Amino acid sequence: MTVLVTGAGGQLATEMLTTAPDGRRVVALSEVELDIRDHDAVRRIVRDVAPQAIVNAAAYTAVDKAETDIDLAYAVNRDGARNVAEAAAAVGAMCVHVSTDFVFDGTASSPYTPDATPNPLSVYGASKLAGEVSVRAACPGAAIVRTAWVYAPSGKNFVATMLRLMREKGGVRVVSDQIGTPTNARGLAECCWRLIERRAAGLWHWTDAGVASWYDFAVAIAESAVERGLLKSPPTVEPIRTVDFPTPARRPGFSVLDKTSTWAMLGLRAPHWRLPLKVAIEEIAHGVTRDHAIVE
Ligand SMILES: NC(=O)c1ccc[n+]([C@@H]2O[C@H](COP(=O)([O-])OP(=O)(O)OC[C@H]3O[C@@H](n4cnc5c(N)ncnc54)[C@H](OP(=O)(O)O)[C@@H]3O)[C@@H](O)[C@H]2O)c1
What we know:
The chain has about 300 residues and is α/β, with parallel strands linked by helices. It has a single domain (about 1-285), classed as Rossmann fold (3-Layer(aba) Sandwich). It has nine helices and twelve strands. The protein has helices at about 10-20, 40-50, 70-90, 125-140, 160-170, 185-195, 215-225, 260-265, 275-285; strands spanning about 1-5, 25-30, 55, 95-100, 145, 150, 170-175, 180, 185, 200-205, 210-215, 235-240. The chain has a six-stranded parallel beta sheet with strand order 2-1-3-4-5-10, sandwiched between helices. Strands 6-9 form a two-stranded parallel ribbon. It starts with a strand and ends in an 11-residue tail after the last helix. Mean pLDDT is about 95; it is low at about 290-295. Bound molecules: NADP nicotinamide-adenine-dinucleotide phosphate. NADP nicotinamide-adenine-dinucleotide phosphate binds near residues 31 and 57.
């Protein structure tokens, strides 16, 4: 089976490669090789590669920049997503598209199920929601999986930022009133592989298990980093409120996703977020090139 992955070099695309099951050929293409905004190029390349499945891991993910870079955010997250879904439908390939917890406004007090009503607070969230709509219209058999707070041992993410700031400044101040769930990109990739296997059309939620604030996440990063010798001494981690750390994009105060239906359908339950975080920190400490995937 050949699986085409867009957005190569990104966190999810990288983990799609490291977790590919036996017998799966992954063709991962970067933006330079395949810009998903280019309708004709997407059509042509998908026809040439002739994949049985496509994972759209490409996205405009700069949440704050999107507030002023509106056209580009929509061009990638809505129109690009549609191009990929249309091309998948044209060759009969299973399409897996990835969306975000930022489609919700965070006013709920219990985890969001896939059928909960979205109401994005940011341009990024709105552009991703528009992407969901355009993918569903272009390819009704697509699997759309919403995830949150994604990190990997390399790449631009919260873990990397925290480790850098803790090392450089000896401490961090982190918001404690935004609640969600961290997600290791490797587990997300494994979820995508299962969605492909099951040709699981519909809307799904996937994050690691458990609940955390960004502050909790930072404390756990600090603890694991000290334990693994990545930091010489424990950094200070101070909780602050969102109002004390204004950002261009508004973020949901509560965006825990309910994964019950996904876990049941996939026969795969994510571990509590602290476990894969420890593994990732260990890999960073060992300078590991992530070539040995965790098998569930
Ligand atoms: N990261 C998170 O915390 C998070 C949370 C919720 C949902 N998600 C969703 O999860 C998916 C995977 O995210 P990720 O963390 O792997 O993102 P990522 O690391 O930012 O990777 C996205 C990739 O897409 C590429 N890209 C951007 N514009 C493109 C275009 N026009 N054509 C082709 N490729 C393009 C980027 O290239 P450049 O780096 O060169 O721009 C990058 O390699 C995305 O759909 C994202 O919206 C992520």
